[in-house]
Amino acid sequence: MTTNRPVALVTGASSGIGKETASALVAAGFDVVGTSRDTSRVTPLDGVTFLDLDVASDASATTAVQQVIERFGRIDVLVNNAGMGAIGAAEESSVAQAQDVFNVNVFGVMRMTKAVLPHMRAQGRGRIINVSSVVGFLPSPYMAVYAASKHAIEGYSESLDHEVRQHGVRALLVEPAYTSTGFEANSPRPDTPLQVYVDQRRAFDRMMVTAIKDGDHPAVVAKVIVAAATDPKPKLRYTAGPMAGRASTLRRLAPARVFDKQIRKLNRLAA
Length: 271
Description:
- Belongs to the short-chain dehydrogenases/reductases (SDR) family.
- This is Oxidoreductase.
- By secondary structure, the chain is an alpha/beta fold.
- The protein contains ten helices and seven strands.
- Strands 3-2-1-4-5-6-7 form a seven-stranded parallel beta sheet, sandwiched between helices.
């Protein structure tokens, strides 16, 4: 089977940002394939074909991409949305726990990118949209491992974009701030907790609960992802939502001392 419509592959499409993105891409005229680790538990979405995918598995990534090619004959847009959080002080997370986060958030993106690039290069076009975060360019106390994974995605994506642009392919970043999803509730806690960090970690948890509750609707991020997928002259980075825009401006323009003070104030840390 082949199609004349553009085809988008969205990882982590069973809920949150991925679910809204899949639906928004359908509305924008795409044939959309969404993925989940267990599609038997996924609520069907109009216009979206679901495939099983574990981005932490080389074989699963390769198989999912091949299934899309066999069914639709092409992949025009890959949205690397699947990811996991991690909350706790840096000293409280074991290296093994950090490796689990990187295996999904960083190496998962790399697996999917390597799987789709040969097809995109052969067709002379394509966009790889990596869902990063404002903590890809901001520090995030008590989320150091997660922030490190998103900083890695920023560096990887920007470097990749320079490599593939000559082949008609772009690698782009979408950077949300707090988004009203299950992120906080689903983020694993530290596996080697320390008493010295308990009070501050609890304060951070309370802040996160409020921030996620009051955050942008996932549809706000989805709209930006569709823009990245369809802009005639795409930008490397797209902030998603007003808070993300303000954070980007603060990072670029604020003097170092002012920036540091604002980060500590935002995270309720002593001056």
